């Protein structure tokens, strides 16, 4: 049985020993999957080619491949949704169809399927709400925009992975309205970084909220620049953003620590291609970026590039393609 020691927890096989203010708690293999520790496969969900698509692609983390596999469909075509993942299932919440919707889709990692299942609704229709956060028990969706398109949101919805439900529960508000941000998850907290606060403009702030009550929002630091439409990644110890738009599409990859106080994130390398609205996936050791677009007349991409979480590097590596050139996709792993 493998034992891995991190700064804030010990992973023993499929279980995680977490330090709490009153002692220790044990969380099961759902937590281990939160960072791709037990995940072997990346999934990309939906997106747009100019028109929303319902495609679910998958590709392996460890095996060389040329083209991702078309694994099934979402319940409807949509782009810029928010993803989440348990140890057994992937989720896609909200998105544009092209109008904003509140549908939450669910699909299994292990069982072949044709179409994802509509399992419930967000508390409000929302799209462009970052990548979504995952705790061991719940999915979270923060901010975004509702209908009409100029109605921007700061609320955060929570929905359960295991219990049947009808509507997600609002649990906390971000410090301001925020769209097109990145999302990251540690074992205990959710993070949102960058984005846009219309009409203020692009943001560089990184905010944090706990997965357990009482819910509070804390500004913990800044990205290296104001940026929106970037992808979010999570290792066991750090959050990462890749690509996005800082006035024009960028290829910058940056990281920030979950547990150590910091002021500004670190620029750690570059993507192969500058682009906005790529989809982000995380294995135990690497980040993956799929698709994306470059404006003003969008050019869409099918590239998948990979970068390491721990090893110094200059430029990410092109490892294959998704089946369709698309932007505004969301990534999960299982």
List keywords for this structure.
mainly beta, Neuraminidase, 4-stranded antiparallel β-sheet, 1 helix, 34 strands, globular
Give the CA-CA distance, first to last residue: 20 Å
**Proportion of residues in β-strands:** 35-45%
CATH superfamily: Kelch-type beta propeller
Looking at the overall shape, the CATH architecture is 6 Propeller
State the low-pLDDT regions, or none. Answer: 25-35
Strand order of the largest sheet: 1-2-3-4
CATH topology: Neuraminidase
The CATH class, by name, is Mainly Beta
Radius of gyration: 18 Å
Question: Please, what is the average pLDDT?
Answer: 91
Individual helix count: 1
Query: Helical content, roughly?
Result: under 10%
Biggest β-sheet strands, sense, barrel: 4 strands, antiparallel
The tally of domains stands at 1
Structural class: mainly beta
Number of strands: 34
The best one-word shape is globular
Tell me briefly what this model is.
This protein has 334 residues and is mainly β. It is built from one helix and 34 strands. It has one domain (41-333): Neuraminidase (6 Propeller).
Give a structural overview.
This protein has 334 residues and is mainly β. The chain is built from one helix and 34 strands. It has one helix at 29-33, and strands spanning 3-5, 9-12, 15-20, 23-27, 41-45, 55-60, 69-73, 82-85, 89-93, 103-108, 117-121, 133-134, 138-142, 145-146, 151-152, 155-160, 169-173, 182-185, 189-193, 196-197, 201-202, 205-210, 218-222, 231-234, 238-242, 252-257, 266-270, 279-282, 286-290, 293-294, 299-300, 303-308, 317-321, 330-333. The strands form ten sheets. Strands 1-2-3-4 form a four-stranded antiparallel beta sheet. A four-stranded antiparallel beta sheet has the order 7-6-5-34, with no helix packed on it.
């Amino acid at each position: 049985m493998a034992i891995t020691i991190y700064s804030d927890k010990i992973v023993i096989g499929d279980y995680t020993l977490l330090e709490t203010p009153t002692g220790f708690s044990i969380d099961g293999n759902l937590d281990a999957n939160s960072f791709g520790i037990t995940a072997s496969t990346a999934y990309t969900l939906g997106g747009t080619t100019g028109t929303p698509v319902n495609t679910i692609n998958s590709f392996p983390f460890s095996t060389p491949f040329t083209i991702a596999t078309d694994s099934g469909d979402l319940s409807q075509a949509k782009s810029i949704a928010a993803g989440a993942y348990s140890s057994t299932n992937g989720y896609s919440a909200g998105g544009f169809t092209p109008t904003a919707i509140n549908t939450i889709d669910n699909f299994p990692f292990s069982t072949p399927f044709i179409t994802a299942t509509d399992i419930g609704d967000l508390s409000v229709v929302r799209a462009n709400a970052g990548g979504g956060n995952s705790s061991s028990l719940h999915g979270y969706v923060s901010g975004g925009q509702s209908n009409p398109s100029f109605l921007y949101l700061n609320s955060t919805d929570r929905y359960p992975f295991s219990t049947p439900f009808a509507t997600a529960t609002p649990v906390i508000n971000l410090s301001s309205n925020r769209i097109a941000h990145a999302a990251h998850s540690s074992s205990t907290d959710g993070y949102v970084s960058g984005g846009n606060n219309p009409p203020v403009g692009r943001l560089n702030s990184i905010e944090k909220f706990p997965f357990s009550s009482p819910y509070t929002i804390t500004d913990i630091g800044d990205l290296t620049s104001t940026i929106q439409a970037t992808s979010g990644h999570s290792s066991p110890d750090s959050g990462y953003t890749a690509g996005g738009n800082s006035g024009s599409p960028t290829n910058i990859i940056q990281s920030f620590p979950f547990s150590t106080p910091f002021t500004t994130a670190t620029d750690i390398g570059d993507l192969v291609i500058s682009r906005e609205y790529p989809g982000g996936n995380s294995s135990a050791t690497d980040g993956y970026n799929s698709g994306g677009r470059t404006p003003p007349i969008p050019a869409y991409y099918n590239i998948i590039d990979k970068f390491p979480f721990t090893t110094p590097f200059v430029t990410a590596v092109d490892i294959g393609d998704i089946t369709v050139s698309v932007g505004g996709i969301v990534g999960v792993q299982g």
